[in-house]
Amino acid sequence: MVSALNRSLDMEETLDESMKTMTEPMKADASAIWILDPKRGRFAISASRGTTGGQEQKQRLSEFFETLGDQIIQNGQL
Questions:
Q1: Phi, psi of 36 (to 5 degrees)
Q2: Largest Cα–Cα distance of the chain, in whole Å?
Q3: Nearest Cα to 20, choosing from 30, 9, 11?
């Protein structure tokens, strides 16, 4: 992962490589990286792998995690 970060400043490539490096040893079926969007003050999905379903399912997951992220931001805990 460090070599990927050193050779690339492209956010999408860096996130994808980071996700691959972390999920393959765990044999995870799917993963996602959420990053806090400072302009909106909300978490947003920045990269995903292995997610099934269409755009509608991804939107529902995104809304769920935004709500969860909002709770963490407001309360500092779940």
A1: -70, 125
A2: 38
A3: 30
pLDDT at 5 over 60: no
3-state secondary structure of 2: helix
Token digits of residue 71: 């709770």
Grouping H, G, I as helix, E, B as strand and the rest as coil, residue 42 is strand
Over 70: is that where the pLDDT of 32 sits? yes
pTM for the structure as a whole = 0.56
Which residues make Cβ contacts (< 8 Å) with residue 69, sequence separation at least 6? 34, 36, 42, 43
Do 46 and 34 meet the contact criterion of CB atoms below 8 Å apart?
Answer: yes
